[in-house]
Amino acid sequence: MEEVVLASSSSLDSGIGSWELRSGSERTRYRSSATPPHSLLSLPRRSLLLSSSNNQILFWSLDKPQVEVRSFPAEPIGPLVSDSDGAYVIGGGASGSVYLWEVASGKLLNKWHAHYRSVSCLTLSDDESLLISGSEDGCVRVWSLMMMFDDIGKEAGRNLYRYNFSEHTLRVTDVASGHGLCNSIVVSSSEDRTCKVWSLSEGRSLRTITFPCIIDAIAIDPGEHAFYAGGRDGKIYIAALNAECNPNNSYGEFIIGSLSDQSKAVTCLTFSVDGVTLLSGSEDGLVRVWDTKSQHVTRVLKHGKGPVNNVILVRQPIRSTPQVLANTQVPPSRKRMHLTVPPPLEKYVNSTDGEAGYKAVTMLQSPWDDPWNNIYCSSYVMSNQIKDLQCHVAWSIWAEQCRRHLGGVGRERDFREILKWIGDCRGKEQSWARHARLRLAASVWHVWRERNRRIYEGLSTPVVGILHNIESDVLVLSP
């Protein structure tokens, strides 16, 4: 696997840049995107890149610089976050609402009012069961995603959120979650110059750290011994998570060091998978690659004139590079799953079908044999796959009739060929009864109709009903 650096700016001219982390060589420049903080997102398993820009949510394929899909949500969306499979995307709105979309279908599965002011940052807990949101109202709230789809539980509960941390006095600038599933810690930063450490299991504050300046970005050390805080004074402070208080420290209590390269304000931070390499973006338009052991900059990536608002790392298989793909056969299942551009994200919940049942979230094993493709799906996608399987069952019964009576005609034969063959049989003596010919014709007609006209329009007839209709038509048409 290789790691690719993606950085974005609020400047429309700079757009989104990408570089290979190991060599520092620039790969692709995605133009026409002015991206606010926390609104650049990668779905690597789907080879997609998302960003919020100018009241739109844009989709790119990672290997193409042109926008593939434009979505127009109901309001401007700021921060974006997704689950590790890239099956769902969650966005925070300017009104304080949170939106949850399914990528495969584009459906807006849920929306709820989370804060009194704009949502400024989002993250998921380690097990992805909890959503943590920060807002301009100074609150950090924790949401159980299962509860958000439990209508009965929501009615019985007083508040939708699980915890409400309201100790910050000014806008929350960033939130980061540690490891440990739902027992992990959460670190939040604010314009009140403090970072607070929260316990998700106990629902209380564990530690408050005051910094010399406003902190805009947080990255937790993978070992959770410390976290790195990017300040507006251009320094990256190192704050201890487990060490005892040291009142004599020159920076302040719990602050054990800093990284500095004479940059402007640090706006974003992210760790590499090696747990040592730290990337920082700053207002001077540069992305710096740090070795946290030596505390030195190992590489500088120049993004553009505007400030770098987001920096993320994407892990991609080495075989996915253009040179390797030219000599490698990609399985059809992977092509179908990863190279298919998803539909635009919908503006309203149930905007097309109005069926509340589609809001339920379930896990569905992928119908393909490639374990890379196993993802979570909503009941909407699951229902369509069930309909698809039902039609395949009807097709199999029809194909078996063909094999029995025609000898070897199967899936490889086209519908039109079979229909033409049935037409040619009229008036001719055949080795099998007219009843069987009519049964075959009825089967072809019903499978064709159910598969092509109604499968994505809300198929309500189960396969048993389809076969019953076939039998009824045969009896009507038979002499």
From TrEMBL:
Keywords tagged on the record: Repeat, WD repeat
Keyword Repeat: yes
Protein name: Protein ROOT INITIATION DEFECTIVE 3 isoform X1
PROSITE patterns: WD_REPEATS_1, WD_REPEATS_2, WD_REPEATS_REGION
WD repeats: 112-145, 165-208, 259-300
Recorded GO CC terms: nuclear pre-replicative complex; rixosome complex
Signal peptide as annotated in the record: none
Listed GO biological process terms: DNA-templated DNA replication; rRNA processing
